[in-house]
Amino acid sequence: MSEHTVKAFDDDIGELRGLIAQMGGLAEAAIEQAMDALKRHDLTAAATIVEGDKKIDELETEVERLAVRLMALRAPMADDLREVVAALKIAGVVERIGDYAKNIARRVAAIDGRSHIEPLSLLPAMADMANDMVRDVLDAFAARDPEAARRVCERDRAVDDFYNSIFRALVTFMMENPKSISQAAHLLFIAKNLERVGDHATNVAEMVYYAATGEYLGDRDQGDTIGLNGE
Hints:
This protein is mainly α. The protein has seven helices and no strands. It has helices at 7-40, 43-74, 78-106, 118-143, 146-154, 156-176, 181-213. The longest helix is centred in the N-terminal third of the chain and has 34 residues, at 7-40. The model has no long low-confidence stretch (mean pLDDT 89). It comes from Stakelama saccharophila.
């Protein structure tokens, strides 16, 4: 984006991007820490993650206030307006990603980290894949890079395939080990939360592409994920 005549406008846009980056960093860290707490069955760390979600919520409120002020005082147009609106929407999506991390942390108490449930060892790799999408799409937003955003969209199918594989493995495990159904069900919801993180990263990528180009990405192949409301 070119520099504006009114320097205060550039300062506001810079602050908006900074707040989004801060939110994204906290959400990424929360997902990573929640998976680590799950592996170690660390209830203290899980409680800290749940409490830390408040900071993400506070930052979302700051983004909303700044975006509204910016639109009221600067009356942005064209690509400037698209960027402000995109920032507003992205803040809401990142807040949801923080909620998924909180949901995962809340399930730590219900899952024994010493359980010999094979998909439990696969979930961290799925979390890394989804978290990489979040980090890369926020980098694309900061750089106003539509091609980087497009590449993030292309990776969503891999996360969906990971989820479907874990889903089938867990269902098979539950059929063979009825006593572990409760723990396996919690793992299913965690896998669904991670699949939704990938979906949200893709949604952000579509917003970044539109904000940078003024054009919509074509309909994407959303694949076939096995239904499970993990929210």
